Amino acid sequence: xxxxxxxxxxxxxxxxxxxxxxxxxxxxxxxxxxxxxxxxxxxxxxxxxxxxxxxxxxxxxxxxxxxxxxxxxxxxxxxxxxxxxxxxxxxxxxxxxxxxxxxxxxxxxxxxxxxxxxxxxxxxxxxxxxxxxxxxxxxxxxxxxxxxxxxxxxxxxxxxxxxxxxxxxxxxxxxxxxxxxxxxxxxxxxxxxxxxxxxxxxxxxxxxxxxxxxxxxxxxxxxxxxxxxxxxxxxxxxxxxxxxxxxxxxxxxxxxxxxxxxxxxxxxxxxxxxxxxxxxxxxxxxxxxxxxxxxxxxxxxxxxxxxxxxxxxxxxxxxxxxxxxxxxxxxxxxxxxxxxxxxxxxxxxxxxxxxxxx
Length: 358
Ligand code: CP3
What we know:
With about 350 residues, this protein is an alpha/beta fold. It has helices spanning about 10-15, 35-45, 45-50, 55-65, 80-85, 105-110, 115-120, 120-135, 150-155, 165-175, 175-200, 215-235, 255-260, 275-280, 300-315, 335-350; strands at about 70-75, 90, 95-100, 140-145, 205-210, 235-240, 240, 245-250, 265-270, 285-290, 320-325. It has one domain: Alpha-Beta Barrel (TIM Barrel).
């Protein structure tokens, strides 16, 4: 299959020379764009949007029509996997995601099985194929999944949580039950990501949004081990092209070397980790993705430019192996003009200048 015309994103993940630092933004298709809100209204709900391939394709392309981004990300949600496992996902207005049947009982955990992605998540595969056709090899398409641990948090809690009391109670009192959930979920995630690759995604990202809430020991045992299991099971090539993988662990900066050792091609960093220090720690073993604080986009354009330049300078010269991104998803109230200022700064960057204005 042909390489995209703009392959800087893939090249950066492989630590190959690029024409400029590539960038994309986590949640780049979302509520900060009025056109997204309009399409979602037409779809009737967020889930209907996810489950209708033509509309998922439409919103995937919206940020690319506005900004010169170097990758598209499949429009979907990490919680479609537990939904396909029978937990009954719904979104309560203003309250975020919820499951009708959270995983609490031992019998339900023993009954849990990995769904066939070609059957229960067919709408995602159809969206991937439609998006690839629409992109026409302009930029690469990123597929994604939640990490087994992050998915287990939602499955056991039954929705978002402030303190993860229910899942952590299980972790400390019945680790066997949590391991059982994680093993089945890792199998589900591996099959799901491989189906996305077979459908046409050109890179994959694993979102471990909640791994960083664990103790160091629990992180290794309940989060990292299962992320590694997924990476071990991923197809490494498809139709002659290598498929790179990115692991994003919010709050995972202190475990950078361990994440880099999972076999992933890139590590996503939130804004609390210094890019220069991170690069020193992992060398050229993996690429790094990140890490602008999403709140920086609420500042005026000059301040956004200054902060983005600081990060590019921090990554340092010989700038390959860096994919610019936010340190977490873009906030729904972000002014769209801020994203334009960011893209312009990153693409206009020409290496660290001596005596640059601080
Ligand atoms: O990056 C992209 O543009 C691709 C789309 C994408 C969405 N969710 C769309 C979405 C991706 C990659 C995700 C991942 C996701 N979903 C994560 C991991 C990344 C992260 O942010 O930490 C998590 C934890 C979820 C679960 C989830 N989905 C929550 C907690 C919520 C509600 C919170 C909120 O922002 O309202 C969602 C809903 C969701 N997923 C929206 C979007 C655009 C907003 C829904 C809407 O339009 O009302």
